[in-house]
Amino acid sequence: MGAYVGSDITAAVLASGMARSEKISLLVDVGxxxxxxxxxxxxxxxxxxxxxxxxxxxxxxxxxxxSPGAIEKVRIHEDGTVDIGIxxxxxxxxxxxxxxxxxxxVAELFDAGILDRTGRFREDNGCTRLREGEHxxxxxxxxxxxxGGEEDIVITASDIASLVRTKGAIYTAAEAILNHVGLVWxxxxxxFISGGFGNCLDVRRSIIIGLLxxxxxxxxxxxxxxxxxGGQMCLLSIDALMQxxxxxxxxxxxxxxxxxWFMNTYxxxxxxxxxxxxxxxxxxxxxxx
Length: 289
Description:
Blueprint (H helix, E strand, L loop, with lengths): L6 H10 L8 E6 L2 E7 L4 E7 L19 E7 L5 E5 L9 E2 L1 H13 L18 E3 L4 E6 L10 E4 H24 L9 E6 L7 H7 L10 E3 L3 H11 L1 H13 E3 L6 H6 L15 H4 L5
Parallel strand pairs: 1-10, 3-12, 4-6, 10-11
Antiparallel strand pairs: 1-2, 2-3, 4-5, 7-8, 8-9
Helix pairs in contact: 1-5, 1-6, 2-4, 5-6
């Protein structure tokens, strides 16, 4: 349909069922290109934002894809201890951090007061896991003695900056497409999440960092890897294949690179969760000032 909007997102729209529903739905496909689709069975509009690969395990110090050994969940307790969940079972030694693990980690660091709203480490937090690395500040997640490799598993200041840029691009792209058709977040009846996260993405922590909007939790739906699911449907059903062709004909492509609203608003999303805390009312009360 347009630049970076093709078969993957078509398959995800098919798998979500949004093109057959009366409900106004938003589909967010989290990847290197954050692809967004808004609409229902009457109309569909889509866009793509260059989000970067950090949620897919690339471009970060200890990032990896969502595969066995990857840290997918993180909890930081008041005493500074860190609990992790590992893909394949916690009896494995962790070898890196995948996208959902990074979302958890940034949200937990923010909630614990280790990060400020700009995404920078707070030097006055007294956290013993925060240290000066070889080139920049970093937070120790897993000591090398407990990891599956030869190095400590850490998140660095530049990792966090990359993750903040990525979440900002995806959130602002979704908000821009809503703005383009005169809708607001409250108008969304279902929000589908697609990508390599499967069903392990924590919605609450995604809201805390400003990746997903602060709307009712019952509106969120996970469809896993929508491109694979939609591809399987087309292989197994002629009807599904015909539906995919109809989706392509129905979708209108919206080019974000020509949208001044997106360009002007993107920088406002480069905070945790956002410059405008009124957009995130459930986070506002707990936000670190």
